[in-house]
Amino acid sequence: MKIILAVTDLNGKNAGFVSDTAQILSLEEASRFIHSGALKGMCVVKSRYGNYVRATPNTDQKDNLDIISVSGRDLLFYANQTRHPVSTPPISAYLERYLASLKEGKPFLTPVGQKKILVADIKDKFNPHILIITAAANEFKLDKCLIGAILIDELSRMHPFELLIDLLGAKMVGRNVSVGVMQVKIDTANQLIKKGFYCPNSADKKIPFKGTLSNKDRVHLYGYLIQSKHNIRFASARIRDLIDEWAKIADISEKPEIIATLYSLPYRKPHSKPEPNERGNQIATEFYAFAKKWLSEN
């Protein structure tokens, strides 16, 4: 087994790895594989700041970690469509390898601005959340198919990096990063608790936090957001908040393409003529149809 992609945290330290067998490894897991001899070409280095992994010195530069490493920020930028993979060669190289491994003749999804993904892969990731989607739709008086369609979009954008992104999450929370299956920003979750839309734990007297969130505050909220049962409810609360806020100017409650567009964008002040973007249209048509079908099968 060899490392084909490495990801670093905000401080440039090892955070996660992808093997040529498609396994996602934490630093601790990679270290165990190295010590057992299962992971080739790498060694564990001990320092006063903790352990880290580096390539075994040799004449081949292709497996040098500097060549195959990408920062956690770059990975998040790619998942959120704010940076094209070709601007980050290690991501581009890994995606080419991943795409080459896909079986031809199978149905694909192609999220706007992203690479193709097997429909079956996304369905496998979608199905475990069906009960939570249905419950959240009832709690927030929303169309469950719209929640599901937005979930499909977010799952598609994170794939095949979702496990790496989750692994990075706790090490990236010094910033207002997006978290979990529906990519809810930590500060947004805190605002939703403040507004009374959703609280993941009424017995937790620390939340909501007041003022600007500290790193410690974000780590605390991350613990809730990484759980799908809370993440999907926070996402649903955000959708409800969008509908209610825009209702003062424009009724978007029956316009899934507008809701999906707003969900995927930074805050937009309500106005009388909202327009969907390409991503919102795809969610409201193609992904909505998949969500409706998959939800009805269970």
Which outline best applies? globular
Number of helices: 13
> Uncertain regions: pLDDT < 50 for 5+ in a row?
none
Number of strands: 10
Neighbour order of strands in the largest sheet: 3-2-1-6
Q: State mean pLDDT (0 to 100 scale).
A: 87
> Gap between N and C termini, in Å?
38 Å
- In angstroms, what is the radius of gyration? 20 Å
H and E string = EEEHEEHEHHEEHHHHEEHHHHH
What's the CATH class label of the largest domain? Mainly Alpha
Instruction: Give the percentage of residues in beta strands.
Output: 5-15%
Biggest β-sheet: count, sense, barrel? 4 strands, mixed
CATH topology of the largest domain: Lysozyme
Helix content: 40-55%
Oligomeric grouping of the chains = single chain
Number of domains: 2
Description:
- The longest helix is centred in the C-terminal third of the chain and has 19 residues.
- The model has no long low-confidence stretch (mean pLDDT 87).
- It contains 13 helices and ten strands.
- Helix content is 49%, strand content 13%.
- The chain is globular, with a radius of gyration of 20 Å.
- The protein folds into two domains: 99 residues, no CATH class; 180 residues, Lysozyme (Orthogonal Bundle), CATH 1.10.530.
- It is of the alpha+beta class.
- The strands form four sheets. It has a four-stranded mixed sheet with strand order 3-2-1-6.
